[in-house]
Amino acid sequence: MKKYSKISYFVFLAAIVFFFACNQSKSSKNKETILKGSATIYVDETLTPVIEDQVEIFENKYEAKIKLISKSEAETVNSLFREKSAIAILSRTLTAEELQVFEQKKIVPKITMFATDAVALISNKNNNDSIVALKDIISFMQGNAVPSIKGLVFDNPNSSTVRYMNSLAGIKAIPEKGVFSFKTNDEVIKYVSENEGMIGIVGVNWLSQPMPAMQKYVDNVNTLNVKGLESEKAFAPTQNNIAERKYPLARDLYIINCQGYSGLGMGFASFVAGDIGQRIILKSGLLPVRIPGRNITIRKNIENDKK
């Protein structure tokens, strides 16, 4: 009887050891690191195309799975406070009040600037004007009549473009008369392509990297040259003009990592700010924080393989 009791005891002990070993192995396998695991990232909708490209390459290189959720700026910021996500991508950094919220939680957000974007103004292809003065846009938003502007079209009342333009105009909310808003940048582009006299306000990334179904609408709009408040010359939102600070509607982009530990937020931010990520930014039409280097190989002898 004692013999069977000892056998049962050792079988029971072996089962416990096996159970914990399996759990530990599973836990180790699913453990998040800077280059492995899964995470959710909220992104300002105006920046979605270029971030989708970053995520695709990042997932292909590492054992990582990122769920990208595209929302308005207000919803993206709120996702950090509601702890729906600890990682957000914005066209602004956090305010002093927002930083204080994290300070109370004993979290120090890691903020990485990775590119400079531009707010683009677009008009219907049939419009003759290729130049618009920023002072006229601001005046129209302040409720004044501007003969050359029939109406302004924004993507979303809570978007970063609305917040950015409201700040320039010194107003708290867009006026009800003559200013319209939809839900996405694609809807703005489509509406302007079909309606003459309207000026759309979108992230330039949506024009340089449209989805195939949107190409025909992008082809039917003009990207306007914008004359700054203190300039007599008008400039297009090109990489060169953004780099030289000539285009008046440029804004810096940031990855806000509030994970509080060395997880995918840190790895993804390092990737986007690194050589590969910056090349993706450059290809997208935005301005990278640092221009990726080019390796040039000089050969003394040129061999002709053709015989």
Helix content: 25-40%
Q: What structural class results from the helix and strand content?
A: alpha/beta
Chain oligomer state = single chain
What is the annotated CATH architecture of the largest domain? 3-Layer(aba) Sandwich
Query: What summary fits the major beta sheet?
Result: 10 strands, mixed
The best one-word shape is globular
CATH topology of the largest domain: D-Maltodextrin-Binding Protein, domain 2
What is the average of the pLDDT values?
86
Give the helices and strands as they follow along the chain: HEHEHEHEEHEHEHEHHEEEHEHHE
CATH C-level label of the largest domain: Alpha Beta
Give me the Rg, rounded: 26 Å
Protein name: Phosphate transport system substrate-binding protein
Keywords: Signal
Signal peptide: 1-23
Domain PBP: 37-274
Please explain how this structure is put together:
- The protein has 12 helices and 13 strands.
- The protein is of the alpha/beta class and 307 residues long.
- It has 2 domains: 33-116 and 252-288, Periplasmic binding protein-like II (D-Maltodextrin-Binding Protein, domain 2); 118-250, Periplasmic binding protein-like II (D-Maltodextrin-Binding Protein, domain 2, 3-Layer(aba) Sandwich).
- Strands 1, 2, 3, 4, 6, 7, 8, 9, 12 and 13 form a 10-stranded mixed beta sheet that branches.
- The termini are far apart.
